[in-house]
Design brief:
binds phosphoenolpyruvate; 8-stranded parallel barrel; 15% strand; single chain; alpha/beta; 252 residues; 8 strands; TIM Barrel; 11 helices
Length: 252
């Protein structure tokens, strides 16, 4: 089964509304005529409606960086999946390592958020990854398997057809350290076979598995050449449209 390559940008807590719009308009222009890969950017919640307008009719799709799992209510400061969908997003990152490390995200809240995303028609991008200490202790697969089996607990086969997985070793995020080709290849192959064991061969074959962690114009082609790598989740290098377009056009 062929999987459409997917390049996603996580803008984290960078760019005001006007700055996000300026970059988005310029990126949309640079992406004109690009059919593959699929392209997504995730600005802050505040910029979602503005960026939705800015990229309308272009190849650039919109995602959120996080959401809250309750539908509505007295949850000061939170944003629901319905609100994100209504703002024009198609995707939402869920369980990014910065959420896990800095804001107490657990596999249980990740699971609830995936449920909320799917319930609102958003496509979840489930982010998983081990820390450097966990890798050094030989716990990489134990951690990744737990993040996936607990994060996807209780879902039926039919519900996960739009799931995207992002493997982001925590020690490679924002550090300039990229995982080696061998490390990425081994983990991605493992993740696909885990999806097959937990769900089905069909789901494993159709699920796109992105790599994230210091992806740059200089290393993207090599990473995208790995058999089970279907795309990239890009932080720092997605903030500058001139840099990000080089990642998007990795094949040229
Ligand atoms: C990320 O934020 O998901 C990420 C991978 O960041 P960076 O590309 O800056 O390492």
């Amino acid at each position: 089964m062929s999987r459409r390559p997917f390049i996603a940008g996580n803008w984290k807590m960078y760019k005001t509304g006007p700055q996000a719009v300026e970059t988005a308009i310029y990126l949309a222009k640079l992406c004109s005529g690009v059919n593959d890969p699929e392209i997504m950017i995730a600005p802050t919640h505040l910029s979602l409606p503005l960026v939705a307008q800015a990229v309308k009719g272009s190849a650039v799709k919109l995602g959120a960086q996080n959401l809250y799992f309750e539908q509505e209510g007295a949850f000061t400061g939170e944003v629901s999946a319905d609100m994100i969908k209504a703002a024009g997003a198609e995707y939402s990152l869920i369980g990014h390592s910065e959420r896990r490390q800095l804001f107490g995200e657990t596999d249980d809240t990740v699971c609830q958020k995936i449920k909320a995303a799917l319930g609102s028609g958003l496509k979840p991008v489930l982010c998983i990854g081990e820390t450097e200490a966990q890798r050094d202790e030989g716990k990489t697969y134990f951690i990744l398997d737990k993040q996936i089996s607990d994060g996807l607990k209780g879902f039926g086969l039919g519900e996960l057809s739009e799931l995207v997985l992002a493997y982001e070793p925590v020690w490679a995020i924002g550090t300039g350290k990229t995982a080696s080709i061998e490390q990425v290849a081994e983990v991605h192959e493992h993740l696909r076979s885990l999806l097959e064991r937990l769900f089905s061969k069909d789901l494993a074959d159709r699920t796109r598995i992105l790599y994230g962690g210091s992806v740059k114009p200089e290393n993207v082609k090599q990473l995208m050449g790995i058999k089970d790598v279907d795309g990239a989740l890009v932080g720092g290098a997605s903030l500058d449209a001139d840099k990000f377009i080089k990642i998007i056009k990795y094949n040229e």
